[in-house]
């Protein structure tokens, strides 16, 4: 995998489902400062990315699961890796549920949700069988189209901007902005990319690709949040389940260019697919490392079936999932995105220091 | 259509399709792992077909993460 592909996969992971879901949460918490909340989320994610870069430097040649074994010992490391396997499984299942809910509520209302999810999973299984390099190449093919669709969306929305909607700025102070930013940052899961660093062909430009993908993804996200506030206004942005989709539905240029919300759906499905596949590959890599397997590709079908069950039992309805995201997900994500990586880094630094001290103490 | 029934009945086909690949690996550990994951997936989908209420992952997470979530804004 090359650094350009790594950039695109990081971008896909950052945007993923966030483009559709986070504008609503940001608008509900930070109101007119939702776009500032998006920027705050970006700063928090930058901090987390710096921490992950530090982990890669501290444990050269190791993927995320190997780092845990090096930092905490074999069995404790495997236990921590198992926690991450479950985290990725629940996250991927929730994303799948989100996909089914969005498609059946906005696009195909008479279609059973199960078939939408199963069809999507069929594509995921095909990709999982072929390997990460095929996904990386697919990302390279998709990326220009994602950019093109996004530019069409932005340019078509420009005439509808109402600058008054963004005022007053920082009326509630920095508190709501930082709270909104924190909650939004728990949805990017950049730690997934640490699983794939050892698979890069060259480590020369990986940091730039990682930070670039994160930055570019956030540029897209903050733009969508900003346009949601500037065009829909705060009430509709906060109360819509999918404000970005509502935004795309407002496009009407000269009574000619209309009903192009399909563009947003295409953009979202592509980034969603990239994110789901990264999680799928992470689970397979986790299984391989935890259990010491020669391969994990035979487990693709059973894992897909379990993913479907997680989707059915997690995304029960939009009210339940809204409450869970608000009250449960933040703490759970923080453990995996901040707390455990910090502990891993601290353990790694301590072990390195002890090794240096013991080498210096050896009699000459 | 009852998808949980369809998927449960398709699971033996998965076993048949993947077994040659597992044999080629010549690893008892890999075979055991696959059988374990396959059994979990089949049992869970079978339970869904039978109409049994499977545990909701978010409720389990809610219980374990309650102290941390109480401290967050």
Automatic annotation (TrEMBL), chain A:
The keyword Transport applies. The keyword Transport applies. It is a multi-pass membrane protein. InterPro entries: Spore_GerAB. It is found in: Membrane. It holds the Pfam family Spore_permease. GO terms for biological process: spore germination. One of its GO terms (cellular component) is membrane. Keywords: Germination, Membrane, Transmembrane, Transmembrane helix, Transport. The chain crosses the membrane at residues 39-59, 80-103, 115-136, 143-161, 173-197, 209-234, 263-284, 296-316, 328-350. PANTHER family: SPORE GERMINATION PROTEIN A2. Belongs to the amino acid-polyamine-organocation (APC) superfamily. Spore germination protein (SGP) (TC 2.A.3.9) family. This is Spore germination protein. It comes from Paenibacillus agaridevorans.
From TrEMBL, chain B:
The chain crosses the membrane at residues 34-52. The keyword Membrane applies. Keywords: Membrane, Transmembrane, Transmembrane helix. This is Uncharacterized protein.
């Amino acid at each position: 995998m090359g650094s350009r592909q790594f950039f695109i996969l990081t971008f896909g992971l950052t945007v993923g489902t966030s483009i559709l879901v986070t504008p609503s949460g940001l608008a509900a918490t930070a109101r007119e400062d939702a776009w500032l909340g998006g920027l705050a989320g970006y700063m928090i994610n930058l901090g987390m990315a710096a921490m992950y870069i530090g982990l890669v430097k501290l444990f050269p040649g190791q993927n995320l699961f190997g780092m845990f074994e090096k930092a905490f010992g074999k069995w404790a490391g495997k236990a921590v890796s198992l926690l991450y396997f479950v985290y990725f499984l629940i996250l991927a299942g929730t994303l799948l549920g989100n996909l089914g809910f969005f498609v059946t509520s906005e696009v195909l209302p008479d279609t059973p949700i199960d078939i939408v999810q199963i069809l999507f999973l069929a594509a995921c299984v095909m990709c999982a069988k072929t390997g990460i390099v095929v996904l990386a190449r697919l990302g390279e093919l998709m990326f220009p189209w994602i950019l093109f669709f996004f530019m069409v969306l932005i340019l078509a929305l420009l005439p509808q901007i109402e600058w008054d909607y963004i005022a007053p700025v920082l009326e509630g102070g920095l508190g709501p902005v930082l709270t909104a930013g924190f909650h939004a940052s728990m949805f990017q899961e950049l730690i997934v990319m640490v699983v794939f660093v050892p698979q890069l062909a060259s480590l020369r430009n990986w940091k730039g690709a990682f930070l670039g993908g994160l930055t570019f993804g956030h540029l897209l996200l903050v733009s969508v949040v900003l346009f949601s506030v500037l065009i829909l206004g705060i009430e509709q942005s906060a109360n819509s389940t999918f404000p970005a989709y509502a935004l795309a539905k407002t496009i009407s240029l000269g009574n000619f260019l209309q009903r192009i919300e399909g563009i947003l759906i295409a953009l979202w499905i592509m980034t969603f697919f990239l994110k789901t596949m990264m999680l799928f590959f992470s689970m397979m890599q986790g299984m391989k490392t935890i259990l010491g397997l020669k391969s994990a590709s035979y487990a693709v079908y059973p894992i897909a079936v379990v993913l479907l069950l997680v989707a059915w039992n997690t995304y029960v309805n939009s009210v339940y999932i809204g409450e869970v995201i608000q009250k449960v997900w933040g703490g759970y994500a923080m453990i995996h995105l901040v707390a455990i990586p910090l502990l891993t880094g601290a353990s790694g630094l301590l072990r390195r220091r002890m090794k240096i001290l013991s080498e210096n103490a050896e009699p000459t | 259509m009852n998808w949980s029934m369809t998927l449960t009945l398709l699971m033996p086909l998965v076993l048949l399709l993947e077994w040659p690949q597992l044999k080629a690996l010549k690893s008892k550990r890999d075979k055991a792992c696959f059988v374990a994951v396959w059994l979990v997936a089949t049992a869970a989908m079978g339970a869904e077909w039978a109409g049994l209420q499977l545990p909701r992952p978010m409720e389990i997470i809610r219980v374990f993460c309650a102290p941390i979530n109480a401290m967050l804004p």
